Amino acid sequence: MRVVLDRNVVLSGLFFGGVPGRILACAIGGRAKILVSGDRALLRATGFGGVLVLTPRAFADAYL
C-alpha cells in the first residue's frame, strides 16, 4: 500500500487551481490509494482518480 501524507497544506486559490489540486494530481500520478489530510478541499475529493482521502484520525482508526 502507498500512502501520501499531507501536513499543513495552505490553500491558494480554487481546488483544481491551487495546492490541493497539485497534491491530488501527484497522488493520482503516483498511483496512491490513500491520501491522509485534514484539508477540506482534499477531503471532498475522496474517490477522485481512485484516491481515498482520509483524515489522520480516520486513517489511524482504519489502518493502525
List the helices and strands and how they pair.
Blueprint: E1 3-5, H1 19-29, E2 34-36, H2 40-44, E3 52-54, H3 56-63
Parallel strand pairs: 1-2, 2-3
Main sheet: strand order: 1-2-3
Q: Percent of residues in helical segments?
A: 25-40%
Unreliable segments of 5+ consecutive residues: 8-16
Strand content: 5-15%
What is the molecular shape?
globular
Mean pLDDT: 76
Profile the largest sheet. Answer: 3 strands, parallel
Task: Tell me the number of helical segments per DSSP (H or I, 4 or more residues long).
Answer: 3
Give keywords.
64 residues, alpha/beta, three-stranded parallel β-sheet, 3 helices
Task: Give the gist of this structure.
The protein is an alpha/beta fold and 64 residues long. The protein is built from three helices and three strands, in the order E-H-E-H-E-H. A three-stranded parallel β-sheet has the order 1-2-3.
Q: How does this structure look, described?
A:
By secondary structure, the chain is an alpha/beta fold. The chain has one domain (3-63). It has 3 helices and 3 strands; from the N terminus they run E-H-E-H-E-H. It has helices spanning 19-29, 40-44, 56-63, and strands at 3-5, 34-36, 52-54. A 3-stranded parallel β-sheet has the order 1-2-3. The longest helix is centred in the middle third of the chain and has 11 residues, at 19-29.
